[in-house]
Amino acid sequence: MKRGVPWLWLAILLPLQAHATQADQVKASHGWIRLLPADLPAAGYVTLDNQGSSAATLVSARSAFYASVMLHQSATDTAGGSSMRMLDRLTIPAHGEVSLAPAGFHLMLQEATHPYKPGQTIDVTLDFADGSHLRVPFMVRPANAPD
Amino acid sequence: MKRARLARLACLFVLGLLLTACQRNDATAPWQLTDISGHMPDLAFALTDDQGKAVTASDYRGKVTLLYFGYTHCPDVCPLTLAHLHVVMQRLDKLADGARILFVSVDPQRDTAEALHAYVTAFDPHIVGLTGSPADIEALTKRYRAAFSREPGKAGGSYEVSHSSGIYIFDASGKARLLATPEDTQDKLVHDLHLLLSPGGAT
Ligand SMILES: [Cu+2]
User: Fold this and answer.
1) Domain count of chain B?
2) CATH number of the domain that A123 lies in?
3) pLDDT band at A6, cuts 50/70/90?
4) Got any disulfides in this one, which pairs (chain B) (predicted)?
């Protein structure tokens, strides 16, 4: 009877381990938003560190402060032109890190629903392919904040 | 031993000659950015500034100007460039008074003078927002081979704008002098602008 207990624990814990969600294995840091005047679209940046042994895929993002949050990528074409495109998903490889940073990946935040100011922190929820979610604080910085 | 050292010295000497030959032009030109003197036309335009005033290039004679094309619905690359230029202006300190950053909108339908005013003042007091008729703006981008295009976006009514990311620098007489790309460091910009802006500096 006494001997059976540890095995019972393992039986309970192993499935939990196997079912660690993508949101559980991703550590988000350095979240910030470059706030622009008027109701211009703003860009959100964050570093995503996947500490798990399987890939995590970001499929969407949302915030109570914006009507629309999209995943974007800025790119420079061969002619030296700069443009943005929308991404359906962004994969963070196992034990890998992906940075959403100026002039690369960013969250495109449009149509603010509440007024807010630099110095505040707003939450953005990241949705992963397995249906898990991660709530991340983003520090609001002024337009001319250095990156 | 001695021979090896001699050989190495000889190699260094030849290498030095080669480098000197390659950098012959750079010895007299002090620039760290790309020198475009004589390769691009003088600054010329007739647009509207962010105060709603009609302006031409001659209004900026006497100022070193940095010409950059962008648009306000550009939350990533344009703000990054303008934030960098803000730091450059701060580092130039008093000399920055002799410089103007001309932020020309390639999205004149949406970028009114008022919209541009709010946008540029959020970055730096040395930035002037310029807008105008689509034809006048297109003429200016063509003049500096800074192509841009507009594609309909996925969301209703929105569209995406592709624009040149270079910064064209003109001296106080309106002559094209230097081109900075996003890869160029702030140090290079500060160095070259310092030279252009210093009294008795390169003119
Ligand atoms: Cu974007």
Assistant:
1) 1
2) 2.60.40.1890
3) low
4) 74-78
Mutate to test the interface with A, among B34, B69, B74, B76 (most CBs of A within 10 A): B76
CATH number at residue B15: 3.40.30.10
Q: Which residue of A32, A34, A36, A46 is the best one to mutate when testing the B interface, meaning the one whose CB has the most B CBs within 10 A?
A: A36
Residue-number span of the structural domain to which A79 is assigned: 21-141
Helix (H, G, I), strand (E, B), or coil: what is residue A123? strand
The rounded radius of gyration (Å) of the Cα atoms in chain A is: 19
Q: Which residues of A touch B76 (CB under 8 A)?
A: 43, 72, 74, 84, 102-103, 106, 108
Is A113 part of any domain? yes
Judge whether A103 lies within some domain: yes
In the three-class reduction of DSSP (H, G, I as helix; E, B as strand; rest coil), residue B14 is classed as: helix
Tell me what pLDDT residue B146 has.
77
List of residues 6+ apart from A109 with CB closer than 8 A? A33, A41, A42, A43, A44, A63, A65, A66, A68, A69, B75
**Which amino acid does the sequence have at B13?**
F
User: Closest chain B residue to A106 measured between Cα atoms?
Assistant: B76
Domain-located, residue A2: no
With a cut of 70, say whether residue A2 has pLDDT above it. Answer: no
Question: In chain A, how many domains are there?
Answer: 1
CA distance B170 to B44: 11
Residue B97 belongs to domain spanning: 2-152+161-197
Within a domain: A10: no
A103: closest CA of chain B, how far (Å): 5
Question: Residue B164 pLDDT > 80, yes or no?
Answer: no
pTM equals 0.82
CB atoms near residue B153 (< 10 Å) = 14
- Report the largest interatomic distance among the alpha carbons of chain A, rounded to a whole angstrom: 74
- ipTM, 2 dp: 0.83
